[in-house]
Specification:
globular, mainly alpha, Growth Hormone, Chain: A, 432 residues
């Protein structure tokens, strides 16, 4: 028994080590030039997005001192996601995704350069931020399905899972560095300078896509509304896809809404200022980045359903721990664990979606999936409203409990969710 136990631990260690190694499977997708170029363009864009979230929140709270105003900005960004991500999903299956991404990223760069200039001239007002947030949210909603559906065509499909992990590593990895740098820039050089850097990141992605070679991709034909209905019918007809999309919604609307309230925690609950807020978010990012490798390593050792349910449950508990903490070191630790567990269950969701969805419906399914991410600002709105009446700690703790409760509730009644990613049983062999 001892030997078998050591062998199992050794096998797990070897799998994790293989994932973490520089020459391991995580780097496999980067061997393809088109995907590698896309990867670095996305790195610049997502870094800008993470700084934007911080800079915009700080600017609004500095101008108004209002928790509710933070929610208004979230509402302005999130409302377009309700409609335009569905449209974006159809466009991603019908149009040239490369040109669509180039246009939307370039337009976003222009909008944020305008906001930076208004801020630098000290004439920025809340309504400026709201209008630009609405326009940027619309562009992002149209662009995200194209971004999610184009990268599988830039590499061999055998590397699709590693590409999903690398894309997640961009989002989570930039959360390690971007918030800390953003907080230091805001404190030292001002919010306007940070916003100019954000615009530069979006512009770099636009240039990258404009010069990217993409192989021919078959386009969906027919009426737009029929295309949209076909995608929604596909998701509604599968309990697995419905759960994965709904789980992402709970994550965005309830779980991740704590990020919009970070200025409140940094100023009123912990008293650490803009720099301290940056490091709080960075702690979450470090945990999230580590969680990517844990999920990638354990993904071939445990079934994805188990990782998803356990990760979501732990995420909810650690988020409540952060919400109730009044001591900065405990808050840093709690957010580290929040980020790590969030990655574990979200990687399971993303991998399942990208490996199971048919190519012909990829844009539309990713459009609905993107809607659940883009709806995050609406989650910020509900958190801002709850925080205004019951306090920020209650709003954040409630979000964590909602995520954990939904995951456990569905998993307890659906065996397909619990067994997601489990190997198919071997056929019985008749005795002869």
């Amino acid at each position: 028994m001892a030997t078998g136990s050591n062998g199992e631990r050794g096998g797990l260690f070897q799998q994790l080590s293989g994932r973490l190694g520089a020459g391991g499977s995580m780097a496999g997708a980067l061997r393809y030039p088109a995907y590698r170029k896309f990867f670095f363009g996305q790195l610049a864009s997502v870094s800008g997005y993470n700084v934007l979230w911080l800079a915009q929140s700080w600017l609004v709270y500095d101008l108004t001192g209002s928790k509710l105003a933070l929610g208004y900005v979230g509402l302005a960004t999130g409302v377009p996601a309700i409609v335009f991500n569905l449209v974006g999903g159809v466009l991603a299956d019908r149009l040239d995704q490369r040109r669509l991404i180039t246009f939307t990223q370039g337009s976003s760069a222009l909008l944020l350069a305008i906001l930076a200039t208004l801020t630098a001239l000290d004439v920025v007002e809340l309504w400026h931020i709201l209008v630009i947030a609405f326009c940027h949210g619309t562009l992002s909603s149209l662009e995200q399905p194209a971004r999610q559906s184009i990268f599988p065509h830039l590499l061999d499909r055998k590397e699709l899972v590693t590409a999903v992990a690398l894309n997640s590593a961009i989002w989570q990895g930039t959360r390690v560095v971007a918030p800390a740098i953003g907080g230091l820039i805001i404190a030292g050089l001002g919010t306007a300078f940070a916003l100019y850097l954000v615009a530069g990141g979006f512009l770099f992605m636009a240039f990258t896509m404009a010069t990217l070679h993409v192989p021919p991709i078959p386009r969906t034909q027919g009426k737009v509304m029929d295309n949209m209905k076909e995608g929604l019918k596909f998701i509604a007809g599968s309990s697995v896809f419905s759960f994965l999309i709904a789980m992402t919604f709970f994550n965005s609307f309830f779980g991740m809404s704590y990020a919009q309230l970070m200025p409140v925690f940094a100023e009123d609950e912990l008293g650490v200022g803009a720099t301290g807020m940056g490091f709080l978010l960075t702690s979450s990012g470090i945990g999230a980045f580590l969680g990517i490798f844990i999920a990638s390593g354990l993904g071939s050792f445990f079934q994805r359903g188990s990782l998803l349910i356990s990760g979501a449950t732990l995420f909810g508990g650690f988020l409540a721990m952060f919400a109730l903490s009044q001591w900065y070191p405990v808050s840093l630790l709690a957010l580290f664990l929040v980020g790590m567990t969030n990655s574990i269950y979200m990687i399971s969701i993303q991998t399942s979606l990208q490996t199971m969805v048919p190519d012909a419906l990829r844009g539309r399914v990713m459009g609905v999936y993107g809607m659940t991410w883009s709806i995050m600002p609406l989650g910020a709105m509900q958190a801002g409203v709850v925080a205004s009446f019951l306090g920020a700690p209650f709003a954040v703790a409630m979000g964590g409990i909602a995520v954990a409760g939904f995951a456990v509730g569905i998993a307890s009644t659906n065996v397909r969710i619990r067994n997601l990613g489990a190997p198919a049983p071997e056929p019985a062999v008749a005795a002869g």
